[in-house]
Amino acid sequence: MKWRIKKCPKCNLYTLKDLCPKCGSKTIVPHPPRFSPEDKYVEYRLRSKYPELMSKILKKNSESSTP
């Protein structure tokens, strides 16, 4: 079992529990994921975070690859 501190998104209380003891909502891990240069899921994260940018990039790449 990893002992990583968690944070309640509603009341901003830090705790080690899965549920906030103050308001009862589910807690989240506020730490970013570890960086890896061989990240397999970077494309999916970028698509979910920046859908307009990714659609422009994919459209531009498909136009340039067409002879």
Automatic annotation (TrEMBL):
GO terms for cellular component: ribonucleoprotein complex. InterPro entries: H/ACA_rnp_Nop10, H/ACA_rnp_Nop10_sf, Nop10_arc-typ. Keywords: Ribonucleoprotein, Ribosome biogenesis, rRNA processing. The keyword Ribonucleoprotein applies. It comes from the Archaea. It holds the Pfam family Nop10p. One of its GO terms (biological process) is rRNA processing. Involved in ribosome biogenesis; more specifically in 18S rRNA pseudouridylation and in cleavage of pre-rRNA. Belongs to the NOP10 family. PANTHER family: H_ACA RIBONUCLEOPROTEIN COMPLEX SUBUNIT 3 (PTHR13305:SF0), RIBOSOME BIOGENESIS PROTEIN NOP10 (PTHR13305). This is Ribosome biogenesis protein Nop10. It comes from Ignisphaera cupida. The lineage of its organism: Archaea, Thermoproteota, Thermoprotei, Desulfurococcales, Desulfurococcaceae. The gene is nop10.
